[in-house]
Amino acid sequence: MNLTIDVSKNEDVHEVKLSGEIDVYTAPKLKDTLLPLTQERGSTVHVYLDKIHYMDSTGLGVFISALKSTKEYDSKILLINLQERVFRLFDITGLKEVFQIESSIRGGL
Amino acid sequence: MEKYKELMKQYMLTENEEALYKAEQFSKQLLQKDVSPDEIVQIHIESLKSLYPELPKEMKRSLDFLLETMIAYGIVHQEARDLREKQLELKSEIEVAANMQDTLLNTVIPDVEVLDIGVLSVAAKQMNGDYHHFIKDSSGNVGVGIADVIGKGIPAALCMSMIKYALDSFSDERFSPNSILELLNRVVERNVEAGMFITMFYGVYDIHSHEFTYSSAGHEPGFFYKAKSKQFEEIDARGIVLGVQNNVSYINYSKSLEVGDTVLLLTDGVTECRQGDRFIERQEVVDVVQKYIHLPAQHIVENVYRYFERLQDFDLRDDFTLIILRRER
């Protein structure tokens, strides 16, 4: 299984649409795409996860790196529409308290 | 060289299949002696010239041309050999490191009359990114820690050693589970790179009051088994993983255990088992444990592991750790 990453810019927001699996093999690719965006001073990054049906702890690691860089670069990251299995990871690890997570458009939860 | 010439002559004269077969056998010997492709072409040219001194000059030229073309292959052949050697070297170094890790992280299951304890930890790769730790304090109470580092293999193992030393450095005193996690979080946060984190559960079993006090840093929830009702319930404990934020408070929870009640602790290597594309549901873990719950604790963990090993065709994807503590009396 692979990971497809689609990046676009909508006004001032970087929109990152993901689909597939985030695991030890695909996580580096995500990291290479995501970190330059959160390292743009003052940027806002929206990550759409509705098409991610599997993520492991390496994936969490990428999001933690991104989150840490938002503090350094005064940027923002927002995670949108997580599937239940993926949301559970953020829940168990207590990370949902430190991430901004939204289930806005298509009720991803 | 002489042997090659001999075999070639044999074949040129007879076109005999047997000579071809011998050539194949001979090539294996050459490989063992690390004769490179361009050397073989060289031998071929010389054998041919000595067997047929009257070779047309175009033929000779074409062979010299072939020889030049083969040189790059010879270099690659040499490189492959060097890599093979290097790889063997690395492999044996990792083996040494894995043995060291086993020794360093070794923990002794405390011998306590009131508890039956079983534990099994298996690494998916050579080195284990799971860690568990037992300690008996001066009043005889039992501390148990279980942790899982993100990732597998060597980086995870190195990180685990850090946890072990940190734990050792303050486990003489009687800390409560939440303050142990708070201290560890500070150590981990300061010492790991941005994307690294550790999940951990720490519990202390009071052998007099039979209270189990515990705290969790984002660790995969374990289970309590109530002997009276034969029911499992998820251990509910909230807390963020170690290494993400620098000033974190963890919460202590506690649970009273009756005789026969059991605490089940695990890592996500257990719940992240996959059978083909199917994920193992946590309920399935509970069902399997339930099947063996009448056995001694060590037999339970071994049987559960064997069940999941079979399910995954003996190909463990993640480190697997399972701990069982049962109140005996």
UniProtKB/TrEMBL annotation, chain A:
PROSITE patterns linked: STAS
Coiled coil (UniProt feature): none
GO molecular function terms attached to this record: anti-sigma factor antagonist activity
Keywords: Phosphoprotein
Domain called STAS: residue spans: 3-109
Functional description taken from the UniProt entry: Positive regulator of sigma-B activity. Non-phosphorylated RsbV binds to RsbW, preventing its association with sigma-B. When phosphorylated, releases RsbW, which is then free to complex with and inactivate sigma-B.
Family recorded in the similarity comment: Belongs to the anti-sigma-factor antagonist family.
Protein name: Anti-sigma factor antagonist
Naturally occurring in which organism (per UniProt): Salirhabdus euzebyi
UniProtKB/TrEMBL annotation, chain B:
Pfam families membership: RsbU_N, SpoIIE
Protein name: Sigma-B regulation protein RsbU (Phosphoserine phosphatase)
The protein's enzyme class: hydrolase
Species of origin: Salirhabdus euzebyi
One annotated GO molecular function: phosphatase activity
EC number: 3.1.3.3
Domain PPM-type phosphatase residues, every copy: 112-327
Keywords from the UniProt entry: Hydrolase
The keyword Hydrolase is annotated on this UniProt entry: yes
Keyword hit for Hydrolase: yes
